[in-house]
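2024-03-11 09:14:02 INFO worker-7 job=invfold-0412 stage=load source=structure_tokens
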């Protein structure tokens, strides 16, 4: 009995025709987060920051109009922080349009995860807005979504795991330091003081 069980476990899964079943490559639609929170480009950074905080998310697709319009860009929590620092005004006075990145890096639900990862690497982003044919937000695909998918028990796509790791490494690779000219005898500006405008 032991020998029979052991040999049964070692056999590969086979379909009814005796061949190994094909593994369908996952698409963006299989993995994306649906019904994304969005904000209007006319909203204040205070409103956007509240959405980011309340929903524990790191980015919002930015749309025209009152949340039903076309995707125009993306606003991240870092964008909010940097706008607060560089603009030196209260968040309720600053419009999302002045702080967002645009146009948004996007993909379609039918795209493969490999295509989406390549897009992320190309644009050096960790998230893509998933859009329909009218450029309206359907969801968001993040590296975290892909990593969770690749890490599922029984997942058989080892190439996807490696591709996810390579994408993460490429996106987070340190940039080469820029050449800087320091004036002898002058201290560099205080990193905590707002820039002089």
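2024-03-11 09:14:09 INFO worker-7 stage=emit residues=197
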């Amino acid at each position: 009995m032991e020998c029979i069980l052991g040999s049964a476990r070692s056999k590969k899964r086979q379909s009814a025709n005796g061949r190994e079943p094909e593994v369908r490559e996952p698409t963006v639609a299989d993995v994306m987060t649906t019904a994304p929170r969005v904000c209007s480009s006319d909203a204040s950074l205070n409103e956007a920051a509240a959405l980011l905080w309340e929903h524990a998310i790191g980015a919002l697709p930015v749309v025209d109009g009152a949340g039903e319009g076309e995707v125009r860009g993306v606003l991240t929590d870092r964008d909010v922080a940097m706008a607060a620092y560089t603009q030196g005004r209260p968040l309720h006075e600053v419009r999302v349009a002045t702080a967002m990145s645009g146009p948004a890096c996007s993909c379609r639900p039918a795209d493969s995860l490999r295509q989406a990862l390549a897009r992320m690497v190309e644009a050096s982003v960790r998230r893509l807005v998933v859009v329909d044919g009218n450029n309206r937000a359907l969801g968001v695909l993040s590296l975290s979504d892909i990593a969770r998918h690749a890490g599922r028990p029984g997942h058989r796509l080892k190439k996807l795991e490696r591709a996810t790791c390579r994408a993460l490494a490429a996106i987070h690779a340190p940039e080469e330091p820029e050449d800087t000219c320091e004036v002898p005898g002058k201290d560099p500006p205080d990193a905590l003081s707002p820039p002089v405008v």
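2024-03-11 09:14:09 INFO worker-7 stage=report msg="Residues 5 and 11 are 10 Å apart (CA to CA)."
2024-03-11 09:14:10 INFO worker-7 job finished
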